[in-house]
Amino acid sequence: MDGETDVGPGSREDRAPQERIGPGRLVLVVGPSGAGKDSVLRGARARLAHDDRYVFPRRSVTRPPSADEDNISLNEDAFIALVNADAFALHWQAHGHRYGVPRAVDTAIASGATVICNVSRTVLQAARLRYQHVTVIGITASRDVLAARIFGRARESEDEATKRLDRATALRAVPLDVEIDNGGALEDAVTAFVTVVARPN
């Protein structure tokens, strides 16, 4: 499954709650490596920083800290302990790492806030069952742009980078509510993103 495994909406929740959580909204951001999801999210967070209606939760991730992402870095044992403690609203595995969105987002959405986070496409169905209002935004770019960004980062071997680029094709099949092209000026993509996020439910 493209290196991504859906491990459920939460450790004790393998089905939707009796009532979906609302009235706030959950905005889920997906897209291939190199599309610039984190750059768009940083830009949107900066523009919405003084509006407490918008929440950008920090994910927990089982990999070392990165200057490009504002995550909480955990080892495997610490992450599993949080799963067992039912500390995540959504969690999944991708590319050998685990990712989790904190349970506190449920409270924020129940209070009417809009929660915005970068997730795996494998949790989209579970999220739609769990929350009243879910908007899935796909951040995209052309294959040439993705290739330039992925190979330019030099984070991995050429073979791994090629596989990562090829996985971008699989993401085209993900059902999206909105698609934003981030192949041009970042500010244009951020403006388009904020416009979508600011729409009423």
UniProtKB/TrEMBL annotation:
Q: In which pathway does it act?
A: Metabolic intermediate biosynthesis; 5-phospho-alpha-D-ribose 1-diphosphate biosynthesis; 5-phospho-alpha-D-ribose 1-diphosphate from D-ribose 5-phosphate (route II): step 3/3
Q: By its UniProt entry, which InterPro entries does this protein fall under? A: GK/Ca_channel_bsu, Guanylate_kin-like_dom, P-loop_NTPase, PhnN
Domain of life (superkingdom) = Bacteria
Instruction: Write the Enzyme Commission number(s) for this entry.
Output: 2.7.4.23
Extract the GO molecular function terms from the UniProt entry.
ATP binding; ribose 1,5-bisphosphate phosphokinase activity
PROSITE patterns referenced in this protein's UniProt entry, alphabetically: GUANYLATE_KINASE_2
* TM helices/strands, residue ranges: none
Coiled-coil stretches = none
- A Pfam family that the UniProt record links to this protein: Guanylate_kin
| GO terms under biological process | 5-phosphoribose 1-diphosphate biosynthetic process; organic phosphonate metabolic process
Disordered: annotated segments:
1-25
Q: Does the keyword ATP-binding apply?
A: yes
Q: Which residues bind ATP?
A: 31-38
**GO annotations of cellular component type:** cytosol
Family of this protein: Belongs to the ribose 1,5-bisphosphokinase family.
HAMAP family linked: PhnN (MF_00836)
Matches recorded under NCBIfam families: phosphon_PhnN (TIGR02322)
| Protein name listed in UniProt | Ribose 1,5-bisphosphate phosphokinase PhnN
Print the organism lineage. Answer: Bacteria, Pseudomonadati, Pseudomonadota, Alphaproteobacteria, Hyphomicrobiales
